[in-house]
Specification:
The chain is mostly helical. It contains 16 helices and no strands.
């Protein structure tokens, strides 16, 4: 090897490392732009709705695999589009809050025009994919997207404490998207799935708002703890969790195991929530409540799938 080749190899090596860093940076920015945790958390309810529709209509997964892929990819793109548009609109808030200050809209890694284009493009492609399943699935996808982008992000989030209620609607339609890709949605099971997700999101979001109280206050976001205080928020958390108790009994068609475990999970969450009236460390309590809520909803929807697996019905 000549001496002239050594600098060339070193230059190539630096270029490879630079490209790797650039790719890693882009992937990190995309994860923040699409709120990766939120995006992936929405996939499970979509699949659970799809799976239960197959179960209750005695349809097979293998013969509907193309519909499943269209439903998952379509709904994921619609949700990602809504999240990107949320980042585009909320850049001023995100600049103030520590939890969002690394988003590419704040750092400038992505221009606002790029984010707006990404959000609109993903939304359009997602709706097209959903239209290849059923019109009703596309309608529910639109309801979730529209509610999140306009009544929540652009209207109520900064002004009214009921922004959480509006935002919860957009998150709760996900199982309906999955279900209606196979069967009509005006039935007991998908509606109860909607209610579980809708009610769950209220105390879940309140826990986050308590954890990030100072940030929301600095950004001027009208979250309940900021506007009305912790005592009111804690009482409402207990109220919403109590409202979850009757819902598993409407899903008795999933079996006794599901009803019992779901009821125990509800009881556990209620105990955790009530303990907030006797614990002085509100931040620690809110973190425990948040972690419980995340595990709660994951277990609930995983159980819906597990208890309807063929192995349990031979």
């Amino acid at each position: 090897m000549s001496n002239n080749e050594v600098p060339s190899l070193q230059k190539d090596g630096r270029s490879i490392l630079l490209n790797q860093r650039n790719l890693s940076s882009i992937m990190t920015d995309l994860k923040l732009l699409f709120k990766a945790n939120v995006l992936t958390a929405n996939v499970l309810p979509v699949f659970a709705g799809f799976w239960l529709a197959l179960y209750f209509t005695n349809s097979s997964l293998s013969s509907n695999m193309d519909i499943l892929l269209l439903t998952i990819f379509g709904s994921t793109m619609v949700i990602a589009g809504a999240l990107a548009l949320n980042n585009w609109y909320d850049v001023d808030i995100d600049t103030v809050m520590d939890r969002t200050k690394n988003r590419p809209t704040v750092t400038g890694n992505f221009s606002l025009k790029q984010v707006l284009t990404i959000g609109i493009s993903l939304t359009i492609v997602g709706f097209i994919l959903l239209l290849f399943t059923t019109f009703e699935a596309a309608i529910y996808g639109f309801v979730g997207w529209f509610t999140y982008c306009f009544p929540y992000t652009m209207w109520s989030k900064r002004k009214y404490t009921f922004n959480t209620i509006i935002g919860s609607v957009s998150g709760a339609v996900t199982p309906l998207i999955g279900w209606t890709a196979i069967a009509p949605g005006f039935q007991k099971v998908p509606m109860i799935m909607f209610l579980i997700l809708f009610i769950f999101q209220m105390p879940h979001t309140f826990a986050i708002a308590i954890k990030k109280f100072k940030e929301y206050k600095a950004a001027g976001v009208a979250m309940l703890p900021v506007v009305r205080g912790l005592s009111v928020t804690k009482r409402q958390m207990v109220m919403y969790i109590a409202c979850l108790f009757p819902l598993p009994f409407f899903l008795d068609s999933l079996g006794t195991t599901f009803v019992v475990i779901a009821t125990l999970l509800n009881a556990g969450w209620l105990v955790v929530s009530i303990s907030g009236f006797f614990i002085k460390d509100n931040l620690k309590w809110a973190q425990v409540n948040f972690l419980y809520s995340v595990n709660y909803i994951t277990i609930i929807f995983l159980m819906m799938i597990v208890v309807t697996l063929p192995i349990f019905h031979r």
